Amino acid sequence: MIEVRNIHKTFGENHILKGISAEFKEGMCNLIIGGSGSGKTTLLKCMVGLHEPEEGSVIYDGRNFTRMNFQSRIEIRTEIGMLFQGSALFDSMNVEDNIMFPINMFTDQNHKEKLERANFCLERVNLAGKNKLFPAELSGGMKKRVGIARAIAMTPKYLFVDEPNSGLDPKTAIVIDELIQELTVEYKTTTIVVTHDMNSVMGIGENIIFLHEGKKWWEGSNKEISQTDNIELNEFVFASKFMQALQKNNR
Amino acid sequence: MIFHPLGKYILLLKAVFRRPEKWNIYRTEILHEMVSIGVGSLGIIAIISLFLGAVTTVQTAFQLVSDFIPRSVIGMIVRDSAILELSPTISAIVLAGKVGSSVASQIGTMRVTEQIDALEIMGINSPGYLILPKIIGAVTMIPLLVIISIGLTITGGYIAGTASGAVTGQDFINGITTTFIPFTFTVSMVKSVIFGFIITSVAAYQGFYTDGGALEVGRSSTKAVVISCIAILFTDYLVAQLLL
Fold it and tell me: How high is the ipTM of this complex?
């Protein structure tokens, strides 16, 4: 479980996160949703240590991450897998080397063992045999899947996913969402997904946190989200014509 | 104004020299950078060195109008200019353009495409992994390039001098072999090691703190070259003042 307590983050004059507290449960897809500029990615980056919050703490299974020094954080970071919005694959390495990179850095496995693990991860994301391709040769969906394969290479306890569906067609987006959900159950990871895609919200949102103007505005599940009276959340959820039509049909 | 970036630069260097996670991975990266910087820059260094030597010889001969000055002096001037100034400094300025811009844009692109964030999430000391191999590659290979450059500058001078008739081959060789002070070579090596450090660390700093997109990567690359050139010339004066 990951807990965030009273997180505040400012950039210059902009107060982005205004005292956010939340719990992200183990073995579950926890979604952080909100409009552009609501602070979702900033919260995610504060949680993984890419941004330092001015106030508050991030606690990984009782371990206070915000108070740790660089060396102590490494232990927790080896338990973290992350899929970035743009996949963030290393351009100079092929798919296989990208996946093997964290294994190379933090284990003493021999080449055969590392290769077996890389192949297993690639099979898990349905990209078996694509070992020698370079990121420039992959489609957007394939890059995301390689990103996921790299994120699970070290069998993480915590999986962070930033906008998994940005730039993907709806069909590929569903494949990625399903993959994230399957891996969460399979590895019992605490998965945190930042998204503004309503398909993801309805599909995998077991625990949802809605951010608005840097504050936690609502918390619940995908079953509860369409029945809430929260005006800001309703404006966000039913912004698209598709969701409006769906709501009309349900009524 | 200067203190904030200077402080950031020093803190970055502190992170660069933190103990590596795994030496064998760093060793591979260091060898890769040595090939990239050393072998990759050999062509341009060879061309500019030959022409520098040729131009220095022709221009020195043009200014030696007095019959009281022996023609062998041309060889001496070309040799000392090559060792003390032309090879280390001009090579460093050319390498600031070639290696520095490449380092800044490579690291800058990694920053804007979140590859550096990915390294940090994995628990890897990203400044160490990305910058240390480049610094070691440069401080080992640039002195070697400067040694090659010295040889080629003198060769260029010899070819131009004898081809134009400004100096005979024998006079030129007499010039480069008489009154040689070995300490000038030490000064040249000290300069090239410092220049190698400046080129890679300044460029890496500019790339590492790139913020934005493709436009900012270009700006970082340009800034890296400009700041490196100024730092090289300033350090050149400083080393000359201190050691000579």
Answer: 0.88
